[in-house]
Amino acid sequence: MSKSQAGKPSLTEGPIAKTLFLFSLPILLGNVLQSLNGSINAIWIGKFLGEQALAATSNANIIMFLLISGIFGIAMAAVILIGQNLGAKKVDEAKKVVGTSAVFFMVLSIIVGCIGVFFSPHILSWMNTPPDAFELAVSYTRIMFAGIPFIFGYNLVMAVLRGSGDAKTPFYFLLLSAGLDIILNPLLIEGMGPFPRMGISGSATATFISQLVSFVLLIIYLYRKKYFLRITKDDFHMLTLNWTIIRSLVQKGLPMGLNMVVVSVSNLVLIHLVNSYGSEASAAFGVANQISSYVQMPAMAIGGAVTSMAAQNIGAGNWHRVNRITWIGVAFNIVLTGLLVICIHFFNREAVSLFLPPEGKAIDLGVHINNVTLWSFILFGIFNVVAGVVRSSGAVIVPLVVSFIALLFVRNPVAYLLGYNYGFDSIWWSFPISFFIAATLNILYYRFGNWKKARMVSAKAAS
């Protein structure tokens, strides 16, 4: 793509509904793929290595989730910065963001990776990892930390591509990474064929190799295709730490990453309540969480897509188009999430039964949780889509505050209040109540707030 072509970002032109659907579809498929990848790898580990190994990976995954939450937010800030610059037809400014982000992510990933490799035992000890899973967790976590540069690198490249309007290429290489990971896991865990038997270290090594191969091939592909935002020898001066851009990435990115942490903390508080009702209740909630994670995926994909689309159109000054993107995104969420909820309600018991044994009350409890909570994820999707548009202007604090209020100040206290006064079955009404409040607050801010005046970074400061 030439610079002249790059000056006309595709997300600022053409039919909005078709563009949004085609742009969000690879993001949705990528989210599904990552979830399936994690589930299949857990099956391999559980089948070959048992419960201690699963406990070890779950402790490591908590650490990785917190790291990925932070890097996700910073990567989303890069998406918005790049999108706004391309919308304004400032390709060189977009390249400055790419150059600074590349150096920043590289330095950050090396520091985090080294800390993790050397201090994994201390981190896991601080987390109170069970003694019988401790050594397994250390082995697994150290290798995962060694792969941090490739995780960070892939997230950055994916952000650059999505910011420029390309969601397909990241999906293809994510497909390659997931496929390699799923294939290599049993081979390296058990030592099949020419491969050594590595146990739990084999699972982490499989993930390390798949991410390395996918990341390297993605970079080679982009340079061979002469991707217009690639850093060439004439652009080496852009490979610098521009502190204005870094400040914007961190200030705008961390609140978006913290949003994921708020969700996680809220779930941990809720699990504490559910655990008081016994193991069957805990199992039912765990299964309902698994199912709801898939129900949320259309909203997450559409939210990511509207962020990229709105960022480019804000950069181009197409505010009328931004408004249409918002409400078309909300409509897509209602239709897609609604259809998914209807399908699961028709096969609710069958879906829950996939995860739970036929004896006991857990299946009935899981069915009840789904009956009360699943439809409320339509409201969650409305909140997520509107928040995605608001964030695309650089207004990231209010969506974080709304999540904090809805989950920690509404959902959790209401769940405890209902649970202690009316029993386990009533806990789940806290979901529609909190999601309704979140959606309402975000729509009110979208309609009456000053989010359109927010800026990621001034043109003067970034130059």
TrEMBL record:
InterPro entries: MATE_fam (IPR002528), MdtK-like (IPR048279), Membrane_Transporter-Flippase (IPR052031). Its main location: membrane. Signal peptide: none annotated. The chain crosses the membrane at residues 20-40, 60-82, 103-124, 136-157, 169-188, 200-223, 256-274, 294-315, 327-347, 367-387, 394-414, 426-446. GO terms for cellular component: plasma membrane. Keywords: Cell membrane, Membrane, Transmembrane, Transmembrane helix, Transport. It is found in: Cell membrane. CDD domains: MATE_yoeA_like. GO terms for molecular function: antiporter activity; xenobiotic transmembrane transporter activity. Coiled coil: none annotated. The keyword Chaperone does not apply. Pfam families: MatE. The keyword Secreted does not apply. It is a multi-pass membrane protein. This is MATE family efflux transporter. It comes from Paenibacillus foliorum.
